[in-house]
């Protein structure tokens, strides 16, 4: 068990490279199960969740070879078991992503309920809807058992645009007989990434980036060499960090198109950046003033499926808003328990009213002071790191496993930007 000791109040300055997108890396590892051939995945972030996914891949009979700093070669010639080990499954939400590939490859998948962040009810109904429509039978008895003699393409209308359910449905449909149409599909950049990876393996997926995906099933998929895209959640977190510490951070290897919904939301907080090619720079001079809606009305930052504002950045926006002059409503529509962490920010001096589990009104700027904090989930944990780095005095952040499952090499990278942060054992 590790914790962070942070001394706040110093501007962060310098250049970092964006890591690979966690939420693309995880389904891409699961997708490697769909072929007997060698799959090379590049730009995988070196984070806890990625290592757990690789452990599951290996437990199923796969070979995993680290061939470069963030590059791995995966191969599973024979699936040796079709049940996900309980201890690994409960560590991460993304373990559910093995359902579609295991079903398609071996006709059976047994999964204990997945773990993951406690940020509200995390329904799996959409996964079941999609996989049963493709012909799977699901038995629920403490664990989920999916079986199918044959998967057959269908015209599927998802009850919500679930990210991982879309990915599971696509991974099952690529080897199904006939054509599958998925309407109300999620279209996040990570969903696009796994679809592009599958096409590079010989799958036939069209409509990538839209909410209707059409998949013509193929007999077999080949290996590939695929580089996953940058993590816009990490990039958004570093933008917030630069702004609240009055620093200037340059982030290389970004994807400008991913930043469009994020730019709109930061713009409401008077925060802007420049992009040249794939390099983004947050300049020191920022307004840090709320841009009211027409008529001087209080603006809101609310999340939605892509291309809406990503829910995984609402915690970050909440802490950033505490340093901005004016009032803003943060409305986390998608997860009902994500906003509870604001009591920790209030304890540090932030002026926030938690209206209900989904909505918080933030009035700034507030002087934050150091505190003793426990990270409840990956994004709230990062929000606490940001709060601690702009607070006066020292903070302790415990349970940093929760942060490090989503942010690569965080303390080293923050130190390179001038942060006073130490990672120490809490035993
Ligand atoms: C491993 C992975 O990729 N995890 C991401 C994935 O989780 P995950 O795939 O679990 O999230 P889902 O997209 O299924 O749903 C997220 C939440 O939003 C709600 N919902 C979803 C779609 C919709 O149209 N309406 C709606 O209200 C769901 O009920 C749920 O409460 O997507 C989430 C939403 O971007 C992200 O927070 C997670 O980081
Ligand atoms: C909620 C998140 O991840 P997961 O779905 O893996 O729990 C996240 O990345 O913010």
TrEMBL record:
GO terms for molecular function: UDP-N-acetylglucosamine 1-carboxyvinyltransferase activity. It is found in: Cytoplasm. The active site is at residue 117. InterPro entries: Enolpyruvate_Tfrase_dom (IPR001986), Enolpyruvate_Tfrase_sf (IPR036968), MurA_subfamily (IPR050068), RNA3'P_cycl/enolpyr_Trfase_a/b (IPR013792), UDP_GlcNAc_COvinyl_MurA (IPR005750). Pathway: Cell wall biogenesis; peptidoglycan biosynthesis. It catalyses: phosphoenolpyruvate + UDP-N-acetyl-alpha-D-glucosamine = UDP-N-acetyl-3-O-(1-carboxyvinyl)-alpha-D-glucosamine + phosphate. Residues 7-412 form the Enolpyruvate transferase domain. Keywords: Cell cycle, Cell division, Cell shape, Cell wall biogenesis/degradation, Cytoplasm, Peptidoglycan synthesis, Transferase. This is UDP-N-acetylglucosamine 1-carboxyvinyltransferase. The gene is murA.
């Amino acid at each position: 068990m590790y914790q962070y000791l942070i001394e706040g109040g110093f501007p962060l300055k310098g250049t970092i490279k964006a890591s690979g997108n966690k939420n693309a890396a995880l389904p891409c590892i699961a997708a490697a199960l769909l072929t007997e051939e060698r799959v090379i995945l590049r730009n995988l972030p070196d984070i806890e969740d990625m290592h757990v996914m690789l452990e599951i891949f290996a437990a199923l009979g796969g070979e995993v070879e680290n061939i470069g700093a963030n590059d791995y070669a995966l191969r599973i010639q024979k699936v040796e078991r079709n049940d996900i080990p309980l201890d690994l499954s409960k560590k991460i939400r993304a373990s559910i992503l093995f359902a579609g590939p295991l079903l398609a490859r071996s006709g059976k998948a047994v999964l204990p309920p997945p773990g993951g962040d406690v940020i509200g009810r995390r329904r799996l109904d959409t996964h079941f809807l999609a996989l049963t429509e493709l012909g799977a039978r699901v038995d629920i008895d403490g664990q989920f058992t999916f079986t199918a003699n044959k998967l057959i393409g269908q015209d599927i209308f998802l009850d919500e645009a679930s990210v991982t359910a879309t990915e599971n449905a696509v991974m099952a449909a690529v080897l199904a007989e006939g054509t599958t149409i998925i309407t109300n599909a999620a279209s996040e950049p990570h969903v696009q990434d796994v679809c592009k990876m599958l096409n590079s393996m010989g799958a036939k997926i069209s409509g990538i980036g839209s909410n209707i995906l059409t998949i013509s099933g193929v007999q077999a998929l080949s290996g590939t060499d695929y580089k996953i895209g940058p993590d816009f959640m990490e990039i958004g977190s570093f933008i917030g960090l630069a702004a609240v510490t009055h620093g200037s951070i340059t982030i290389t290897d970004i994807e400008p198109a991913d930043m469009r919904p994020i730019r709109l939301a930061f713009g409401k907080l008077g925060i802007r950046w420049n992009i040249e090619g794939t390099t983004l720079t947050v300049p020191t001079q920022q307004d840090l003033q709320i841009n009211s809606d027409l008529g001087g009305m209080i603006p809101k930052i609310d999340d939605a499926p892509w291309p809406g504002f990503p829910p995984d950045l609402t915690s970050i926006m909440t802490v950033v808003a505490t340093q901005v002059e004016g009032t803003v409503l943060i409305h986390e529509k998608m997860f009902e328990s994500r906003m509870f962490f604001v009591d920790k920010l209030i304890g540090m001096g932030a002026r926030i009213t938690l209206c209900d589990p989904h909505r918080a009104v933030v009035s700034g700027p507030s002087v934050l002071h150091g505190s003793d904090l426990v990270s409840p989930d990956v994004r709230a944990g990062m929000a606490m790191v940001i709060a601690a780095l702009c607070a006066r005095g020292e903070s302790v952040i415990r349970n940093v496993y929760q942060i490090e499952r989503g942010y690569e090499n965080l303390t080293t990278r923050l130190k390179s930007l001038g942060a006073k942060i130490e990672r120490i054992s809490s035993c």
